[in-house]
Amino acid sequence: EIFIVLLIPHLIWLNDNEYITVTYGLKRTGLEQSDILDHIKYPIIFILKQIGLLVPFFTLVSLLIKNVDVDDYTPAWTKITNLMDTTVIFKWEIITYDHPLGWEFSICDYPFCYTDGQMNGTMDPVPALSDYAFLTVNVESTYPDTGIYQVAVWNENFPLLSDTLTVIVISTPNFTNLTKHISPEVPVVYYNQANRQLCGENPTSSPLKINLFTSSGQLVRTFTIPPEQEYKINVFDLAYGLYIIHAKGISNSFTIERFSNY
Fold first, then answer.
1. Measured between alpha carbons, how far is 225 from 199 in angstroms, rounded to an integer?
2. DSSP class per residue in 180-200
3. Which residues, at least 6 apart from 153, have a Cβ–Cβ distance to it below 8 Å?
């Protein structure tokens, strides 16, 4: 009752002044000339603007065609840019792959390499407005042919807004490797963190070529091990980070820690 009593003077004032505050508000918002369709049009515009803001979470090369040599381990590397002003966690999943029998492939992301046949993964958090994130499709072809690999990538917070990376690997003959030597013995290579050395053995009767890649797919070292020999190779001058070892029949990875002793 007190509220109604207090409200009466204001209602009388509005009536005497032709509801000026109400008409002023309608004029400022343009609602005096509004149409019933505006109640449909403007919500649609709002939704489209929100989608426009949400879609550009990241950019990546959606199609990559890579030519490789037979028996040559080749990473097909793609950079992923975080366009948001917040930290993002990217996830990925192999949608499909179609490659010849006998070919081998693996996936590396930021900052892991998956060598046990994993079909999905989660990257480390990526800083805002950075291009730290990446994906590599690592392929070893045993004979000339073509392999196609499709990987979906998305922001962990928005799983329905994904992008698809398609990598096409075309393997052509490498005439320096036309003659193959098949040995029942498998070479061994591993990283000795205490001494910062690559160690192992080449039990075969032919030289063993070892390639060392960074996590982004850059070749940083190549070593040739003579037949039937053990070896220890110093790598203490390499910067800290993730590295990928690849030799015929071998695919491995190791990390040089920031404060490793050597």
1. 11
2. ----SS--EEEEETTTTEEEE
3. 58, 60, 80, 90, 91, 92, 135, 162, 163, 164, 165
The values of phi and psi at residue 240, to 5°, are: -70, 150
Predicted confidence (pLDDT) per residue in 136-167, tens digit: 888 888 778 888 889 999 989 888 878 888 88
Residues 68 and 170 sit within 8 Å (Cβ to Cβ): yes
Tell me the C-alpha distance between 82 and 131, whole Å.
6
Contact in structure between 211 and 222 (CB atoms under 8 Å): yes
CA distance 191 to 200: 9
pTM: 0.47
Helix (H) or strand (E) holding 138: strand 133-140
Q: How far apart are CA 253 and CA 193, in angstroms?
A: 12
